[in-house]
Amino acid sequence: MCVDTNDQYVVFADIINKITRSSGKIAPILLVLSTSSLLLLDQRTLQIKYRVPAAEIYRMSLSPYLDDIAVFHVKASEFGRKKGDFVFETAHVIEIVTKMFLVVQNATGKPPEIHISTEFEANFGQQTVIFNFKYVGMSELAQGPPKVTRKANRMEIIV
């Protein structure tokens, strides 16, 4: 990885879907957890798009449903104010949250908060967005990925 940023050791790596803050659309991206940070890379060129030091991640939010979505909350530092929190969709949500938990705990000496709820807030730069998860049961919708829609300051996920 990168010796000058102390990201030599990879803890976890996977191609996941990043849910865009603006529209709720998904974009595939390579997520890499190193011993000191979260890196998001372009899956084709392997160029680093974002690097978030582990100490900047203070909470992870999940719904109680099988929607494979996790929100990583970033402190309101210079980076966090510009971009805000990250929203991911992955079949390996438990593994990513577990590994990130350990990386943050090792980097800061204290564990990040884990928040499980059908509704929570996320920071998208200059805006606070409310995530709302709705479970519709066994319909034809349940066969595919969750349906994500963004309306004003609400992100609705139908599972």
From TrEMBL:
Gene Ontology molecular-function annotations: cytoskeletal motor activity
GO cellular component, one term: myosin complex
PROSITE patterns found in the cross-reference section: TH1
Pfam families given in the database record: Myosin_TH1 (PF06017)
Domain TH1, first and last residues per copy: 1-159
InterPro entries per UniProt: Myosin_TH1
Protein known as: TH1 domain-containing protein
Lineage, top ranks: Eukaryota, Metazoa, Ecdysozoa, Arthropoda, Hexapoda
